Amino acid sequence: MIVRKVYLDHAATTPTHPKVVEAMLPYFTERFGNPSNLHDAGREAKNAVEEARAKTAALINAKPEDIYFTSSGTESNNFALKGIAQAYSQKGTHIIVSQIEHFSVLHTAKSLEKAGFTVTYVPTDPQGLVDPSDVAKAITKDTILVSIMHANNEIGTIEPIAEIAKITKNRGVLFHTDAVASTGWVPVDVNALGVDSLSLSGHQFYGPKGAAALYVRKGVRIRPQIEGGVQEDGRRGGTENVPAIVGLGVAAEIAAAELPRRMGHVAGLRDRLQKGLTERIEHMVVNGHPTLRLPHNLNVSMWYVEGESMLLFLNMDGVSVSSGSACTSRSLKSSHVLTCIGTDAAVANGTLLMTLGMGNTEGDIDFVLEKLPAIVQRLREMSPLYEDMVKKT
Amino acid sequence: MEQYSSKVMEHFASPHNVGEIADADGVGTVGNPVCGDVMRLYIKVEKDIITDAKFKTFGCGAAIATSSMVTDLVKGKTVGEALKISNQAVAEALGGLPKVKMHCSVLAEEALKSALDDYYKKRGKPSPVKLPESVGHEHEME
After folding, report:
1. Is the pTM value of this prediction over 0.95?
2. Exposed site from A42, A93, A222, A349, fewest CB < 10 Å?
3. Same domain as A263, residue A250
4. What is the mean pLDDT of chain A?
5. Hey, is the C-beta of A50 within 8 angstroms of any chain B C-beta?
6. Number of domains making up chain A
7. Residues B67, B39: contact at Cβ < 8 Å?
8. Which tens digits make up the pLDDT trace of A135-185?
């Protein structure tokens, strides 16, 4: 019997593209050099890193010299917020972020508060959109940096970055965007967006884990967070992870080449999944924005059932998804993103995040459409909340 | 998160004693949907012996497994014996629980105590059950 495996958790990570792996392999063995060395082995590695820098820059319409390689999206966000805040602390100490940022921004903002900065956390509307006028209102003469994510990693809402950038530019404030969830899935152009810095991560779009980048527009000062040698123009010490950086470059090249096809493929499957689930499951809420949303993202909340138990039953059927349930998190709190958009805390615990990828097929979607409604029904029959609802009506 | 034991997965995948008892002698509901779990436990008592127990639970894998286990453990016990079933006993019977899921075993114990309390009250007897301060339980972890 062939057991079907359906991976619908591409926002957690993607498989590394075979062409990426193939390009990386020589840099573990015959081309193992350290890019800091002047000899041939070093030069070979240095050239590979610079080639990857050019490819990564091309994906986001940046100049190669404005790209700094890091180890992860989290490091890029830490680098941007702390590095810029520290470099501009003489000018001001106020920072603005949204309430739905990834923890690598939110927790960094909290840590900057402990270091003496003040932070304003702007809300979103029920579809997850930041209102640019809220950002404008929050800016004071002490504001040095605004950080709003390009697209949210949970509900997929795409924020009005270009509009916010016009405001920050006007007011002489720097603007960082976390584009980790969006890069490789929608067009990302640092000039069209008008941002001063931007984070992206390779494993989110078929690159390897361990390679990410921070774009910093020329002229923006940023203090290094990893001090050591003069790698990355003296802004990020540590011997470069050459194989992973090479992989990131190839993943960026593939993303740039196939982006329209990629978006069409995943959006088509996502719409099929959303339509099918809506038809088959009662008392289900689709979270996020109906149109301004990442093409591979579907975030749904089911009343009267809990997310982790849905996730575990789906896993028994070979389907991998994420849950936004409180019970799966260490804090026993439901997602801060769903809280921000005003999702009822009781239904937030019945949330599933399904994110599609190039390997998924219509057959995969139909398989989930066959399995998930039955799982929800089974759990509802076991749920005292469902029982109470049925008795009331 | 730590993985679930095979015993937990067994009880989660095929939970025992799911359902309601129409003429139950005691019913207890504990938990809060905001925290992610609600348990309702029904008991049937004949001559001080718990002859049947059933449950309905909204919750994670551990919440369903502990509900299944506590209803198994309580059947055939006297009311006095049932009062002594602790959350540790439920967790141990399941081959242990991940640390962050121990609160589910606490909830199972509270659901049982709440059902026993209801049993005493329905019979017009003073209840020896010490219910936790908030039966809509609070999580102590942050």
Report:
1. no
2. A42
3. no
4. 96
5. no
6. 2
7. yes
8. 999 999 999 999 999 999 999 999 999 999 999 999 999 999 999 999 999
Alpha-carbon distance of A101 to A108, in angstroms, equals 11
Residues B75 and B51 sit within 8 Å (Cβ to Cβ) = yes
Task: Report the CATH number at residue A48.
Answer: 3.40.640.10
Same structural domain for residues A121 and A164? yes
Distance from CA of B41 to the nearest CA of A (A): 10
The hierarchical CATH code for the domain B6-122 is 3.90.1010.10
Mean pLDDT of B5-9: 96
Half-sphere exposure of A79 (CA within 13 A, CB side): 30
Question: Is some CB atom of chain A closer than 8 A to the CB atom of B120?
Answer: no
Look up the domain containing A291 and give its range: 6-13+259-392
For residue B22, give every residue at least 6 positions away whose Cβ sits within 8 Å of its Cβ, in sequence order, or none: none
Partners of residue A325 in chain B, C-beta under 8 Å: 36, 60
User: Could you read off the pLDDT of A268-283 as tens digits, one per residue?
Assistant: 999 999 999 999 999 9
Out of A224, A255, A286, a domain closes at A255
Nearest residue on chain A to B12, judged by CA atoms? A309
Q: In this structure, is the dihedral angle defined by the CA atoms of residues A312, A316, A317 and A318, taken in order, positive or negative? A: positive
B22 in contact with chain A, both atoms CB, cutoff 8 A? no
Q: Backbone dihedral region of A34: left (phi > 0), alpha (psi from -120 to 50 degrees) or beta?
A: beta
Task: Using an 8 Å CB-CB cutoff, list chain A residues near B37.
Answer: 306, 327
Say which of B12, B33, B60 has its CB closest to residue A328: B60
The domain that contains A314 carries what CATH number? Answer: 3.90.1150.10
The pLDDT, as a whole number, for residue B36 is 83
A340 is annotated as an active-site residue: no
What span, in angstroms and rounded, lies between the C-alpha atoms of B95 and A294?
42
